[in-house]
Amino acid sequence: MQSATGINSAIECCGIVCDDARLEEIEDGSVAVSIPWQNVKRITLRDGILAPHPILQIVFGLAFASLAYFPVRHLIDWLQHGGTLFTLELWVIAFASIGVWFTLTAFRRGLFFEVETVQGTKRLVFQKHPEPALLDNFVKSIEKRFGTRVEKR
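and the corresponding structure tokens:
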């Protein structure tokens, strides 16, 4: 898809936006990753695990989730027998839900651009899986307009 915004027109596909100045990932309406074109060394289109460090993500996710073990046991006991329930325990349980989310999303798969830059490698994730024709057209537009080859793995 191409959209013109004044003199500087941008090409966009499923949350990845390329204009004359930079390559960006847009997530929920705001810029998540932004890379100036002069810093781009290589772009690779990949289909795989989206998390850069999934094992580390699982370890931290399980650690956060395990913090809620005793508060959940106490909550169940409180529901069955009554007594005192501390607000801090509820906050710990809510905080531990972040750990569950980390664990569940560690091995999520999808399409992304792996961009090798002067500072290192960054991932720009497609927000949904584009149709093959749209994706192919998007990649060809990037190669033609910016002179940067997009490898496919």
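(Above: one complete record from the training split.) The chain has four helices and nine strands.
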